[in-house]
Write a structure and sequence with these properties.
This protein is α+β, with helices and mostly antiparallel strands. 53% of the residues lie in helices and 23% in strands.
């Protein structure tokens, strides 16, 4: 009888500890998902074949589709062949570099048609055996910065022309 009671207490403890671990994992996953969702950057993950595995809300705005509509598809399902080829070529550059690569690109947002200039970082992800499992992308809006830099260059060129033509 005492053995059964000890077994029951031990089993109950194991179940309680497992349940607490599962709750902690669920909380951690929810916090991570919230973090990714509220970031102002576009975030996405593709498998080695260029099929989307995940994305955030900001990325949904780019393609004008929900995450559920994006996952399982590729760039070719949402943008022109030329733009999709450009995205895939940059994915491949990151894979070949075996590390992060950065490029600038101007992209149109399907949600409302506006364009943004993004500084895009693509990072290949490898498992513990060194096998490629996907490419993580993060697109940061640099439109304001680029426009400011262009305005400064234009102003400097105008000033230089005036200065050069002045006796």
């Amino acid at each position: 009888e005492a053995g059964k009671t000890l077994y029951f207490i031990s089993s109950w403890r194991d179940i309680s500890e497992r349940k607490l671990s599962e709750q902690a994992l669920e909380k951690s996953e929810a916090q991570f998902k919230t973090l990714v969702e509220i970031l102002p950057d576009l975030i996405w993950l593709k498998n080695p074949d260029g099929i989307f595995l995940a994305c955030n809300k900001r990325f949904e705005d780019f393609y004008g589709a929900t995450q559920e509509e994006i996952i399982g598809k590729s760039d070719y399902d949402f943008v022109s062949k030329e733009l999709a080829d450009f995205f895939r070529a940059n994915d491949q550059l990151a894979v070949e570099a075996r590390g992060p690569t950065i490029n600038e690109e101007e992209i149109p947002f399907a949600v409302d048609g506006h364009k943004e200039i993004l500084e895009t970082t693509k990072t290949p992800m490898f498992n513990s055996d060194g096998e490629l499992i996907g490419v993580l992308g993060i697109g940061h809006d640099i439109t304001g910065r680029v426009r400011s830099e262009n305005a400064i260059r234009t102003s400097e060129a105008r000033f230089s022309a005036i200065f050069q033509s002045s006796p």
